[in-house]
Amino acid sequence: MQDVLILGIESSCDETAAAIVKNGRQILSNVINSQIKIHQQFGGVVPEIASRKHIENIAGVVDGAFQEAGLTYRQINGVAVTNKPGLIGALLVGVSFAKAFAYALNKPLIAVNHLHGHIYANFLEHEIEFPCICLVVSGGHTSLLYMKDMISYEIIGETRDDAAGEAFDKVSRFMGLGYPGGPAIQKAALTGSPGKVKLPRVFLDRDDYEFSFSGLKTATMNEWKKLERRGLQNVNDMAAEFEAALVEVLVEKTIRAALKYGVKTVLLAGGVAANEHLRNMMNKGCEEKNLQLFYPSLRLCTDNAAMIAGNAHHYYVHSQFAPLSLNAYAGLSSL
């Protein structure tokens, strides 16, 4: 059987990425140009700046992917690109480049949902049995999914307001820890003690799979101001308690869903899946309930193009191609 080589392009936020994956599993190259240092001074991603940097970087990043893989342009079988969800200007850069690239090479174009890519990152490294429960936690999304197979996703719960990653960023910025918030809070929490400050576990008392992190964010900010007035601020203790409060809800609701749906497999996906405390607590919870847990390596948790190229393999073998009129969409109507 002939090998299938897919070029993946990812530009949904502030990483310009390109990768080539063989047969949906073997990563031949995975090039990422990050804009974190550019956006740190603003405390978050500035959409217009991100879009301009994608325009500057994308051609070089794609060339780098081919050089790393040791391939020529015409050796690939298809071009995959993230077309939703994300920053609309950033997405349009990737989509426009991918359409032109596919047209010039007369190769099929494949549209990939960014969140499907994050989920698929698990399948690049692990053999996973269905059905399973997947917790998708990123800067813009927090959702619990019941997966019957590779293409059947049922949303059983999601955040009503802030996503987990968004809450990390906002709290980190408020406490002066910087951007990106997830790694900054994780670092501070390592030398802090959860429990010295008390924060709520929002929605944990509800018998559903919904999340809400806006209340936790507000409670953290209010408590921080109270401690400031009393001269009792300890940024490490607050970071540790905030991280513990957020992770506890994520873990308990995920385990609860796995038991309710009778599955034996749990997946983590998205940028927040790189959080060490989340991994440790989810591991502990799954071991206690005899569940098998999978999550991607750190390099595949954050935005990358290998997950896009890998996910596109399924669409390629089933000839599910996108037209050259493909558009980008900031929002997500459904998975």
CATH fold category name of the largest domain: Nucleotidyltransferase, domain 5
Give the strand tally: 10
Q: In sequence order, what are the helices and strands, one letter per element? A: EEEHHEHEHEEEHHHHEHEHH
Spatial separation of the terminal alpha carbons:
31 Å
> What gyration radius follows from the Cα positions, in whole Å?
20 Å
Helicity, as a percent range: 40-55%
Query: What count of domains describes the coordinates?
Result: 2
Low-confidence parts: none
Strand content: 15-25%
What spatial form do the alpha-carbon principal axes imply? globular
TL;DR?
With 335 residues, the chain is α/β, with parallel strands linked by helices. The chain has helices at residues 36-40, 47-69, 88-105, 114-120, 164-174, 181-189, 214-230, 235-260, 276-288, 298-301, 306-317; strands at residues 5-10, 15-22, 26-34, 78-84, 109-113, 132-137, 142-149, 152-158, 265-269, 292-294. It has two domains: 5-119 and 301-317, ATPase, nucleotide binding domain (Nucleotidyltransferase, domain 5, 2-Layer Sandwich), CATH 3.30.420; 128-295, 2-Layer Sandwich (Nucleotidyltransferase, domain 5), CATH 3.30.420.
What does this structure look like?
43% of the residues lie in helices and 19% in strands. The chain is of the alpha/beta class and 335 residues long. The chain has two domains: 5-119 and 301-317, Nucleotidyltransferase, domain 5, CATH 3.30.420; 128-295, 2-Layer Sandwich (Nucleotidyltransferase, domain 5). A hairpin with a 4-residue loop joins strand 1 and strand 2 (15-22). The mean pLDDT is 95.
